[in-house]
Design brief:
The complex is a heterodimer of chains A (290) and B (233).
Chain A lengths: L1 H29 L6 H17 L5 H24 L7 H23 L16 E3 L2 E3 L1 H23 L1 H11 L1 H6 L4 H27 L7 H14 L4 H21 L2 H18 L14
Antiparallel strand pairs in A: 1-2
Helix pairs in contact in A: 1-5, 1-8, 1-9, 1-10, 2-3, 2-4, 2-8, 3-8, 5-6, 6-8, 9-10, 9-11, 10-11
Chain B lengths: L1 E10 L2 E11 L4 E6 L5 H8 L7 E6 L2 E2 L5 H6 L2 E4 L11 H7 L10 H10 L1 H4 L11 H13 L5 E5 L7 H16 L3 E6 L2 H7 L2 E6 L2 E7 H6 L1 H8 L2
Parallel strand pairs in B: 3-8, 3-9, 6-7, 7-8
Antiparallel strand pairs in B: 1-2, 1-4, 4-5, 9-10
Helix pairs in contact in B: 3-6, 6-7
Classes of the chains: A mainly alpha (290), B alpha/beta (233).
GO molecular function (chain B): ATP binding; ATP hydrolysis activity; branched-chain amino acid transmembrane transporter activity
Family (chain B): Belongs to the ABC transporter superfamily.
InterPro entries (chain B): AAA+_ATPase (IPR003593), ABC_transporter-like_ATP-bd (IPR003439), ABC_transporter-like_CS (IPR017871), BCAA_Transport_ATP-bd_LivF (IPR052156), P-loop_NTPase (IPR027417)
Amino acid sequence: MIANLIVGGLAAGCLYAMVAIAIVIVLNITDIANFAQGEMAMLTTFFAYWLLDDLGLPWWQAVAIAAVFGLVQGVIVQQVIIRPLIGSPVLSAIIATLGLNVVLNSVAGLIWGHQTYTFPSPFAFSAPFHVGGVAVPVTSVVNIAVGLAIILGMTLFLRATWTGMGMRAASQNQTVARLMGVSITKSSAIAWGLGGLVGGIAGILVAPAVFLDTNLMGALLIKAFAGGVLGGLNSLIGVFLGCLALGVAENLTSAYLSPSFGEAITFLVIIAVLIVRPEGVFGHVKVRKA
Amino acid sequence: MLEVKDLSVRYGSVEALHDVSIKVETGGLVAILGANGAGKSTLLRTISGIVKAASGNVALDGTAITGLRPEEIVRRGIAHVPEGRGILPDFTVRENLMIGAYVRRGQDVSPDYRRVMGMFPAIERRERKLGYTLSGGEQQMLAIGRALMAAPQVLLADELSLGLAPIIVRQVFATLDQVRRTGVTVLVVEQNARLAMKFADYLYVLKYGRVVMEGPRETFAKSTDLVDAYLGA
């Protein structure tokens, strides 16, 4: 029983982590908290749904195309909305993402209406794996595997490639990064593209479990933020582990205390962490001067 | 050769540089002296493209580089050690050095890495430490090393002596002299006139954004009173 709850919590935590990583990669490189991240992911998921349902593409194909859509969407948002605001206060860009959030929600509402859709999953009816007597649903395995792949891939990209190194340099000191030859606009575009991609994948993975509608990402976004704050927003690994911990905590409190308390734990975590350790468990205070 | 001609820079309505012209011969070490706010850092920042010029030209070996983006200017061979060193706090010493070679990605930079580390034994010992844990002197060495990783023709160095103990300052300048001997052209900005006069072969004095005095080291050595007057010392 407890093992099932933990595995389920890890699977949910991996979904939170994907959304959190999408937000944090943009936040760290550009200092912009992207409030439209959820609706961008929702749009990507609806796009995948359209490919599946209206065009009748096979699941894998639709998901691959939608992932590219998410990436391109991120880059377009950066180029069209964020880039003109470079040089103005970061707050302007953050307000712009709030506006985009509303626009995307309305656009999706216009196209698909405000009813719910059933988003198919090829794993929904697969027989669960049995790991040491614990029945693990295939969807959980998929969530965890994709979550691990994303955190590993992202870490490798940021640490072992020139582009990733340049982006990390830009996140610490833009002037110095430019003096080293790093293009800030390019770094920012890549960060937004990755955010769009990873967020979109989270949307596609969560949609079969919760039904697809224009408010698909609302709850996930808050949990991603809570998990991110718990782990420390400036550490990618911290964000990942924080989200896993939140997922597990949520599942355990729902089961052992009260199902309604499972939701409350998210907000308790945010409040407690912000009071006790605002930089998060794995985060550190950002050193602004060198 | 690095040549700056009639360069003017404005921050809003304030003129930071007014018709500044300087010349740095290939392989030379030139120093710009001046008090706080004289426009020294602005000059370097304009050369490397961080600040836009209002008028005038910057040319490297006869090719105009005015108005190019910083990433293009460093690619053309001008590396900049910024004011305050600009060490990236969350990068290790190794990463701080490697990012200097960003414009050379795709090339094998490991020989340069070993060469630069060889120049700075103090930071070599701290290869895995994070940038912010280094002392001021070590950060300054690292900042110079990082600029060298771009394999530059010209090195711009802003206030290397700022906040460092005199003995460390002498080490830093000795290193700069060593760099220059490898054929890199060096342009330093400095408040410490005595120090600059020891190492530079040609000097300029900036005051309120204008060149008020220039000449070879010998001339400067003979007119230290005048230099002191200009620097407000």
